[in-house]
Structures are given as C-alpha cells and as structure tokens.
C-alpha cells in the first residue's frame, strides 16, 4: 500500500514552506526515522523524516518549490507498489542519479566551478571512482548518506577507515564536509566557495528583512549582577536537581518587565499595533551552521526552576536539530547572550515580527560608586534594540530601566 509523505505545518505564521533539499531519490529504500528531505519555513530549516519503511515511489514536489501544509510531497511503498505505479504512469525506472546527472547549473547548494584547472581533473575522477568503489564494497551507509557522498564526492571507504566501523549516517558526513571546504582555483586565484545552506539563507533573508523594514534604535544600561549571582547560588544549592543559569533568571525578568510595558510585547501589522497577552521569550541558540530561536511561551507563568528545565530541554533539542516548528513560533521578545565570550557590548538585530531584542555582554568586575565609596562589583552590559514604529525612546528607556532594577533586585521578579 502506497503511503503519502506530506508537508508538515510550518508554524503559526505561515502555511507554506519550501522544499530546500531532497536527501533521497526515486527508487531508494528508506526506513522509519530516515530523513527524506529538508524544508525551509520563514523561521528555520527543518528535517522531514519518513514515518514508514519502503521504497520511494515518486517525488511530487521538487527542490525549490513551495507546498502548503498537508500537501503530498512524496510516495513510499513496497516493491510491488513501485512497479505498479511505474506501469500505470508510464514511468521509466529511475535509479539514484550520478553526480553529473544530479548537478544543476549555478546550483546555489553546490560549489560553483566555472573553470577548473586541468591538473585537478584526475583527482576529481579518482574521488568519484573511490565513491563508487566504496558503495560497491558493501559499506554500511544510510541511503541519504550515500546520496550526500555522491553529491559531495566523499570517499566512503576512506571515511569508514578514518572513523571506524558502524553505519555511516548523514550527520557524520555533513560534519566531515563542513570541516573540509572545497578549494577552488579558477584563473590562478585561490579562495574558498562555501555552499549556502538552507539555514544560512533563511537567516540572511530574515535579517535583511529586519534591517530594511524596521526603523530600529538601541538603548544600553549597565547592571550590577551581585544579587543575581547570589540568587542563582541559593536556588542551585536548595534544588540541586535543576541547575538554574543566569539566562533563566533573565528570561523571567524580561517577562515580568514586559508585563509592565505592553508596547514592548507587540508587533507592527498593516492595520494596527498588535499587543499580546502572553510574553513569549525566544532564546537565541548557536548551532552548527547558524542559530535557532526556541521560544519559552508565557514565561511569566513559570518559576525560575521551571524555566531552567524548559530551556535545558529546548537547547538540547536545538543542538540535535530536533526542534519542531511550534517550538520556534510565537516569540514576542528575543534574548541573545554572548556573555560566555569576552564581549563587553553588542547590538542585536530584531527578529521580525517582534519589536524588541536584548543583547547581553560578559559580566566583568568593575569599579562603581556606592554610597559615595568606590567598590568592585560584577557588572553586565545590556543593550536593547527597539522598533521605533511601536516603542518611542522614552518607552524603551523605561522598559530597560525596569529590566535593570529587576536584575539588581531579582526577588521582585521571581516572587
């Protein structure tokens, strides 16, 4: 029986997504859990896994094409289904494409080599032969990993020797390929051409949209983190099963302050300024090849310990590439923290359709004046970027002042 692989929902803000890349071909076998393709929503690039095992009977939506949620992307069945489908549709049997057949002119997902040094041709041919030889020798590799190896001219036999026994997976090859960029040498010049991943393209599109369409401004304050540090130590001492981070306390503070300033928790629409009843704070998480922003929804409804549990789970899923579209949707404010690096101050770009993003620098010991005396305190710089269409300068300053006051007196936010 033929089963349908359908387009999942892209989230709350869109019903259409683009097929960014197919990782299988017609005629290939897939198992339950194999990644068949990657789709690009307006927020991120997401894998689509097979829910069944069988043979890819047909691919109905091609790379670069858009489809709505629920639309059929591909068909999977057994060998009889495959043969019957071919007979009924007068299809010619298709096998996995060779590198030459699969390559498209000016394909943005492939390194482009307009003119190749003739001395490099034997090397390229040798790699292609090794790829085919590796497949013929019966190396254990997932179907999508074999396809990726063909497309990127990776020697599976050599890869297996270097990485040891076991089934070769797509994630292993992607990590290997990202660590060894292709060196291009047209007309005597040496440079690197790195293929633009779907995630990179999504980030570029959204950041360009933000900078072109949002009249943004920044406000910066310095925060004495003495009380936050003490609170974190106290909570982690009393409840050792859940390790609370500074981010968890700050997320709680941002939600509390946003409730006091509803203009910050809003979006600009064509007809109105839309305020949201819940404060949903997104946390920017660096992952291989870019970043994603999982969202803690209705952050004010949870304790710091509950927030810590949720953030740990979402960060783990983000780094494993397992976040669902819903977990990245609905954000109203974003937090970006580079405090783990020696970064004192930076400005972040608003994540549309939100109206505010906060950027945190490193906490450093500084000399400050308290009651007329110079003392050393741990100080963190916080810079907020606001959408001026919604939040005027005074309103932004008032919000950031309350963020500062709550961080310096965190008991007011967590009680």
TrEMBL record:
PROSITE patterns: BIOTINYL_LIPOYL, LIPOYL. Residues 2-77 form the Lipoyl-binding domain. One of its GO terms (cellular component) is pyruvate dehydrogenase complex. Keywords: Acyltransferase, Lipoyl, Pyruvate, Transferase. GO terms for biological process: pyruvate decarboxylation to acetyl-CoA. Belongs to the 2-oxoacid dehydrogenase family. This is Dihydrolipoamide acetyltransferase component of pyruvate dehydrogenase complex. It comes from Christensenella hongkongensis.
């Amino acid at each position: 029986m033929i089963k349908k692989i359908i387009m999942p929902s892209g989230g709350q803000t869109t019903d259409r997504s683009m097929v960014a890349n197919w990782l299988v071909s017609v005629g290939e076998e897939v198992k339950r859990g194999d990644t068949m393709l990657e789709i690009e929503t307006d927020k991120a690039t997401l894998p689509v896994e097979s829910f069944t095992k069988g043979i890819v009977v047909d691919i109905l939506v091609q790379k670069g094409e858009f489809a709505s949620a629920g639309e059929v992307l591909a068909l999977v069945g057994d060998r009889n289904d495959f043969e019957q489908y071919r007979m009924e549709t007068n299809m010619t049997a298709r096998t996995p494409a060779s590198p030459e057949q699969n390559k498209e002119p000016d394909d943005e997902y492939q390194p482009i080599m307009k003119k190749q040094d003739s001395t490099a041709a034997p090397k390229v041919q040798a790699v292609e032969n090794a790829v085919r030889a590796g497949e013929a020798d019966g190396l254990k590799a997932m179907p999508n990993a074999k396809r990726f190896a063909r497309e990127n001219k990776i020697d599976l036999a050599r890869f297996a020797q270097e990485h040891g026994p076991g089934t070769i997976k797509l994630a292993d090859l992607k990590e290997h390929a990202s660590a060894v960029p292709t060196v291009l040498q047209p007309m005597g010049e040496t440079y690197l051409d790195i293929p633009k991943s779907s995630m990179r393209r999504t980030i570029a599109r959204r950041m360009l949209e933000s900078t072109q369409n949002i009249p943004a401004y920044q406000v910066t304050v310095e925060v004495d983190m003495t009380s936050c540090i003490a609170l974190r130590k106290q909570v982690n001492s009393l409840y050792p099963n859940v390790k609370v981070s500074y981010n968890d306390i700050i997320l709680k503070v941002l939600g509390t302050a946003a409730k006091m300033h509803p203009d910050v928790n809003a979006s600009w629409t064509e007809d109105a300024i839309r305020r949201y009843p819940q404060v949903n704070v997104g946390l920017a998480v660096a992952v291989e090849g870019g970043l994603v922003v999982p969202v803690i929804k209705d952050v004010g409804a949870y304790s710091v310990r509950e927030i810590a549990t949720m953030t740990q789970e979402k960060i783990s899923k983000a780094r494993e590439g397992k976040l669902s579209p819903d977990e990245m949707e609905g954000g109203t404010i974003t937090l970006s923290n580079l405090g783990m690096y020696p970064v004192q101050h930076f400005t972040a770009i608003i994540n549309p359709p939100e109206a505010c993003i906060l950027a945190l620098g490193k906490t450093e010991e500084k000399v400050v004046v308290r009651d007329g005396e110079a003392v050393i305190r741990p100080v963190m710089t916080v810079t907020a970027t606001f959408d001026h269409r919604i939040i005027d300068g005074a309103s932004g300053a008032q919000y950031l002042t309350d963020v500062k006051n709550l961080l310096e007196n965190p008991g007011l936010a967590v009680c």
